[in-house]
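Hello everyone,

My group is preparing for a crystallization screen and wants a predicted model to guide construct design. The compound we'll soak is flavin-adenine dinucleotide. Before spending weeks at the bench, it would help to have a computed complex in hand. I've included the protein sequence and the ligand's SMILES below. Output in structure-token form would be ideal because that's what our pipeline reads.
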Amino acid sequence: MDHFVHLREKLSRCCPSLELRIQEPMARHTSFRIGGPAALMALPRTEEEAVAAVKTAAELDIEPFFMGNGSNLLVADEGVDRFLIKTVPGLETCRLQGQEIWADSGVPLARLAVFARDRGLSGLEFAHGIPGSLGGAVTMNAGAYDGEMAQVVRSVTCLTARGAVETVTDCGFGYRRSCFSDGKRLILGVKLALKPGDTEEIRSKMEELSARRHDKQPLEYPSAGSMFKRPEGYYAAALIDQCGLKGLTVGGAQVSEKHAGFVVNRGGATCRDVLELVEQVRTRVLAQTGVELEMEVRVLK
Ligand SMILES: Cc1cc2nc3c(=O)[nH]c(=O)nc-3n(C[C@H](O)[C@H](O)[C@H](O)COP(=O)(O)OP(=O)(O)OC[C@H]3O[C@@H](n4cnc5c(N)ncnc54)[C@H](O)[C@@H]3O)c2cc1C
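Reply:
Good plan to model first. Here are the tokens for the complex, ready for your pipeline.
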């Protein structure tokens, strides 16, 4: 605990403008609305503040955890003894450079997609309904409806663990992963290469995808989206449904009755409830279909 007090004091001296929160309840920062307090959280509003946060932590041998909008995170009920650096809502500018967009990592994907649409740039229609930040989406190589971040990312500017600025063009994208998935670098900003398109066509594509989402997904309950990765050759939701697990409940956590790939918080769900439910689903799907499900949602303990 002492090292966080030391970190806080050091940061307050070297970067007084940096917003710091102590024992910050993580249920406020995750789309699941689950999670106890984080020991210390920094919310940088500029690159300089982000550099100060990362460098000072490195000087004290503290490994930070980086987060965006918390829409793919499940945080422990007892909280986490970690230093969190959160890009949302502080780092959020976007600008046009020719046909490329440069955007800060904390920009919500929905806003970025609208920014592109309004400038007649196509390629982010798939991302409009994903409730994450740009940094989280690049880390996860977020995707939907045949689109994924790998298709539009030209380069990423990030901070190394020691706070040096680096530009990465080969992001090692794979299915729901990238070279940033190891949590060692903080994504600061992203250059996106898009194609010219018709604003009205882009708008109607977004509306069509949004309608499909509202039709298929339980957006009325807190969740972290798809709980499991797509196993090769299968769909997680179809396997779970086939095993008769829709509606399976542990405490406040439930396998959605609308979309079996989602675990939803029906009210008061704990991290323990969700993990117990996930274990039951994995065990039953393995026993009945022989397929092993792997979690897509990141657990922070
Ligand atoms: C209703 C709903 C629907 C969803 N639909 C989809 C979908 O269609 N497709 C899809 O792929 N996902 C979907 N998701 C999951 C989630 O929105 C995505 O994974 C999103 O990209 C996560 O972004 P985030 O900013 O919330 O990241 P977080 O949840 O904050 O973090 C996710 C991971 O990224 C890392 N990270 C975040 N920001 C940074 C940064 N700046 N630098 C370095 N690392 C960082 C974190 O350490 C963590 O490992 C959905 C979630 C919900 C709740």
